[in-house]
Amino acid sequence: MNLLWAVSALLLSCWQASASTAPKIITEPNEVSNQTSAVLSCNLTETNLPIKGSHWMHNGKIIEDSKSSDTSPSTSLHLEKITHISGGKYECVFLTDPEAKQTIEVKTLPHVGAYKHSEHGNEKDKGVMVCVSHGYPLPTDWTWYKEEDGSQKPIINGTTDKYEIKSTPNNTTLTINDLSIENDIGDYVCSGTNELGTTNDKIHLRVRSRLAALWPFLGIVAEVIILVTIIFIYEKRRKPDEINDGSAPLKSNSNANHKDKNVRQRNSN
Amino acid sequence: MSPAPAAQLEYKPLDGGWGWMVVVGAHISIGFAYATPKVLSIFYKEIQDDLGASFSEIALISSVMLAAMYAGGPVSSVLVNRFGSRPIVILGGLMCGLSMVTASFGTSIVYLYLCIGVIGGCGLSLNLNASLIIISKYFLTKRPLANGLAMAGSPVFLCVLAPFNQYLLVNFGWRGSLLILGGLMLNCCVAGALMRPVTPPRKPSSYVQESKVEVHPNNSKTRLKGSCMKNAKKFLDLSFFKDRGFVIYLIGNIMFIFGAYAPIVFLSAYAVSHGVEEYSAAYLLSIMGFVDMFVRPGTGLLANSKWIRPRIQYFFSFAMVFNGMCHLLCPLITSYAFLVVYAVFFGVGFGMVFALIFECLMDLMGSERFPRAVGLVTIIECFPMLLGPPAAGLLVDIYGDYKYLFLMCGSVILTGGLFLFVMNIYNYHMLEKEKQNQERAAEVEKKRAPEAEMERTEPEAKEMNGVQNEMTDLGVWGLFPHSVSFPGQRPPGTLPDVAYTAAPSPPPPQSPPGL
After folding, report:
1. CA B32, CA B269: separation in Å to the nearest integer?
2. Residue closest to B314 by CA, chosen among B136, B135, B481, B465
3. Does A17 touch chain B (CB under 8 A)?
């Protein structure tokens, strides 16, 4: 009987002790989803510990502006515009010993963007299209569609060798093998889905023909041949007129040469 | 009496007329030679993705190309001496075109090294040397201007090819772009077609001269059948190292080339490290190239003027000192506006040096010895050119600060410029002494030899030197050289060239004045 009483007293004192050192933070709201703006507030209750200050953290990084040495047990953070950049995990931290913190999740629609909106591929080669996502929470599902005649045709992974889809929460890659100019040119849509909804983006794929560069090349070769021919013909035509090509007659010879030239001209006339 | 360049050439260079078309051809040729290794880097990202190679493996393509281009110098010089510039430039153009076309079908990085690097580099080396040699044959009085205009090809082609390559890459991919670029490089064949060979004027005695000139190639033919050592000697004429002027020029050049390219490579990285955004940082190099485009012909024009031409070696050392000072002042610059000013001055300095770099060698060596000299110079320049940027990069890695790079490059170039300046004063002083010794020896001979012979040679040579003599009137204090009339001075005691002794003999019908 005495032993039982002692044990229960011990337990009670332990519970009271922990109750007095375990602060409870009441958050308002618990979670933000699909709102354009919000005010996050935390209230520290059930503790006698001295509060030296408080601050907020976003995705593990301290928000400098939110640092305060106010000893009040409640603190709030005003989010004016909630976008995929400002979404994430917010933590209010009270500077007590030990620190007390609580997390509020701010959830938004995923932001899906194409790495490049216009992609090129060579015929018979492979074409790679990438979409990335930012925001919280990251998409859990990725799907690709090909736009055909105004409607979107889903591309299913694994059914054919032609399409390969590799997805991680951060990004998704669609690889098209053996590109053909007739079938594969067009718009492709990637869409990412998380618990709040779906967003998508469009990529335009261009397929270059193997022989596309051949025509300019042949044109340039033709131009070179024509120019070289013209230069050589010009030179052959001028050769009989000018013996001393590329050099002027020596000063000491000049009189003799002029005389010769005059003689020739007079004769021809 | 030392040979005048006209006497060495047996004719007076055209200095105009078709010569300007040759300058256009050289401009195209040199433009492709210097610009292509640099603009190929635009394709590297796509090639890297396609062939799965690492960045350093890809960057090696440019290095192999540059190395082949410089190392092929001696071979190119020998071929040009034998066959003339025109066939060599046409061959070079065909090689370059072929290299790019075959590279466009490449599937491995080693294949690209061989095609673009080795074959392309060799083609470019043929182009480069042949173009420089033909300018030395076509021009004498207007040679600095011709050199400046021809060397301007490098920045012009760089500025044109860089955006053009970007456009090609987007529209045709790297394979199609290489194919089209190969086609463009075939235009070097057009440039080669423009390089009409220089025919000496036909005089009866010219057969005597030509047969004597032929002695050299015939000799070289028999030497080819000789041993390997003799072969190597034919390609790398080491007798140049006995020439004081040549050695001075070479040392100054090595120092310049060592420090010249690293600032270009690291300029945009330096700007970015000081908070300039990437796009604006890349713009700095374009500014430099744009300024370079105008400075080169301008420097050529300036060097051609009668005040600077006799002192061209000093002008060259001034340009190097200017370049070095620019780099030394760069670490003091942190704002973008001043970086733009630095880029402008860098462009000016760089352009000045490169416009004069081959002109000074032509001035020192004369048209006859220039081909072999330039081959030797380019192959030796290969080493500082390949070692410079990595050494600078190593400095950056060790100290973590770009300023040491600029300090090192600036000080090396500055030292080179000052070295050239001082050693040139010494060299010309020694040349004056030697000339005076030779004149005294000639006078002694004059009293012994038949009078008529000497009277015939001296006035003739003086007439041939006509233009040059105007410029040599400035030979005050023995500092300002008679370099234009007496390039390639040999130390006293060596025999004159065979070709030289044949040259001054006049044709029979004509009576030289003074007799």
Report:
1. 26
2. B481
3. no
Any B CB within 8 A of A263 CB: no
pLDDT score for B461: 46
For B114-156, the pLDDT digits (tens) are 999 999 999 999 999 999 999 999 999 999 999 999 999 999 9
In chain B, which residues have their Cβ closer than 8 Å to the Cβ of A236?
Answer: none
Residue A247 to residue B182, Cβ atoms within 8 A: no
- Residue B404: Cβ-neighbour burial (10 angstroms; 0-12, 13-18, 19+): middle
Calculated CA dihedral for residues A78, A83, A88, A92, nearest 10 degrees: -10
From A121-125, B245-249, B337-341, B383-387, the region with the lowest mean pLDDT:
A121-125
**CA distance, residue B212 to nearest chain A CA (Å):** 19
Set of chain B residues whose Cβ sits within 8 Å of the Cβ of A255: 510
Residue A228 one-letter amino acid: V
Q: B391-402: per-residue pLDDT in tens?
A: 888 888 888 888
Locate the chain B residue with the closest alpha carbon to A228.
B190
Radius of gyration of chain A from its Cα atoms, rounded to whole angstroms:
40
Tell me what pLDDT residue A16 has.
59
Residue A267's pLDDT band, with cuts at 50, 70 and 90, is: very low
Handedness of CA B167, B170, B171, B177 (dihedral sign): positive
CA distance B265 to B257: 13
Cβ atoms of residues B46 and A208 within 8 Å: no
Question: Shortest CA distance to B174 belongs to which of B28, B286, B39, B34?
Answer: B39
Residue B311 tokens, joined? 């002192």
Residue A251: which of B177, B203, B463 has the nearest Cβ?
B463
Please tell me whether the overall predicted TM-score, pTM, comes out greater than 0.90 for this model: no
Determine contact: A221 vs chain B, CB below 8 A: yes
For the beta carbon of residue A125, count every other beta carbon within 10 angstroms. 17
For chain A, count helices (H), then strands (E): 4, 18
Asked if A181 is an interface residue toward chain B (Cβ–Cβ < 8 A), one would say no
Amino acid at site A32: V
Element (H, E) at B448: helix B403-448
Q: Which of these, A49, A74, A50, A76, lies nearest to A65 by C-alpha position?
A: A76
A244 at B interface, C-beta within 8 A: yes
CA distance B5 to B140: 8
Q: Which residues of A touch B460 (CB under 8 A)?
A: 252
Contacts of B512 in chain A (CB under 8 A): 252
Instruction: Give the model's pLDDT for residue B201.
Output: 65
| Residues on chain A touching B176 (C-beta within 8 angstroms) | 208, 212-213
Whether B201 and A122 lie within 8 Å, measured CB to CB: no
CA distance A28 to A40: 6
Q: In what order do the strands lie in the sheet with A127-134?
A: A111-114, A127-134, A171-176, A163-167
CB contact under 8 A, A256 and B509: yes
Closest by Cβ to A224, choosing from B15, B101, B189: B189
